[in-house]
Design goal:
55% of the residues lie in helices and 9% in strands. With 295 residues, the chain is of the alpha/beta class. It has one domain. Strands 2-1-3-5-4 form a 5-stranded mixed β-sheet. Keywords: Signal.
């Protein structure tokens, strides 16, 4: 029996060796960047809010700051928005050191039906948001647009000042992205890549006229073999022309977009396969050990 208990203790200790140390890092409060901020959609019921808290692992953080986003926030960050809009999608934002980039994780992918992680990321860069881990959740099926408003609010709580022209443009970018994927039949990942690549070319080429922007748009559509109607193509040109005229540090944006373009293309290659092999091997060994312990 003593031998069996020793074996069981050894198995438990192995978890700490194999699993990444980041699993145990949530108890540390970052005094420089602040605690994670959780923003809930105002129309969540108490039970739905509890579900979102669980999805976003709020209890796993040492401390969080909790906010609510409603129609008043919507019209603040998105002129022309509906003050009475129903808002359910919620987000947890954890600031990162400069240069870390954006990491977006939709933790309830079945319930965020239109917006992908890459769509959030490209819109957030347009709005001026960078260097953060953002997790998005909803207890029911929604498009996912209101989470962006919550992210804006969270950033201003930390002392950042967002340009409303940029946030408005970012929202229009997100709307166009979902329109192209939902109604024009373009793959969602291809839409994100298209928007990222066009903005990257704008940052590099610094187009002086709308005709220059149109040329960039057409080149990227051809490169990705994406066919759009004349109306949708014009919407894309108009949006990118607005982006080209925003007060943006395009040299810095170009670095971020280059990193993001790489992530989109290699998104399925981020995880070290050897780690998962170690995990599988560990559990196989644990199962064998437990069988011998109780046989």
């Amino acid at each position: 029996m003593k031998k069996g208990l020793s074996l069981l203790l050894s198995i438990i200790l192995m978890v700490g060796v194999i699993m990444p140390s980041a699993v145990f890092a949530d108890d540390v409060i970052n005094e420089k960047l602040g605690v994670p901020i959780v923003v809930y959609g105002a129309n969540l019921s108490e039970s739905e809010k509890a579900s979102v808290k669980k999805d976003l692992n709020v209890a796993g953080e040492a401390e969080v700051e909790e906010l609510t986003v409603d129609g008043n926030d919507l019209i603040k960050y998105i002129p022309g928005g509906d003050r009475n809009a129903r808002m359910y999608s919620s987000a947890k934002i954890t600031r990162q050191e400069e240069g870390e980039g954006l990491v977006i994780n939709i933790v309830t992918p079945d319930n965020i039906t239109q917006v992908t992680a890459d769509m959030y990321a490209t819109a957030m860069l347009t709005a001026g948001i960078e260097d953060a881990v953002v997790e998005v959740a909803s207890p029911k099926k929604v498009s996912g647009h209101s989470a962006l408003v919550g992210i804006y609010k969270a950033y201003e709580v930390t002392g950042e000042v967002l340009d409303t022209e940029r946030t408005d443009t970012a929202n229009d970018e997100l709307n166009l992205a979902t329109k192209l994927s939902e109604k024009a039949g373009v793959d969602k990942d291809e839409v994100a890549q298209l928007l990222t690549d066009i903005k990257k070319q704008i940052a590099e080429q610094k187009p002086a006229t709308k005709e220059d922007v149109e040329k960039i748009v057409n080149e990227q559509l051809k490169k990705l073999n994406i066919q759009l109607s004349d109306a949708d193509r014009q919407l894309l040109i108009d949006l990118m022309d607005r982006i080209s005229k925003l007060d943006i540090d395009f040299s810095k944006l170009n670095e971020q977009l280059t990193d993001m373009a790489s992530k989109i293309k290699d998104k399925l290659g981020d995880i070290d396969p050897s780690f998962w092999e170690k995990v599988k091997e560990f559990f196989r060994n644990m199962a064998d050990s437990l069988k011998s312990l109780f046989s």
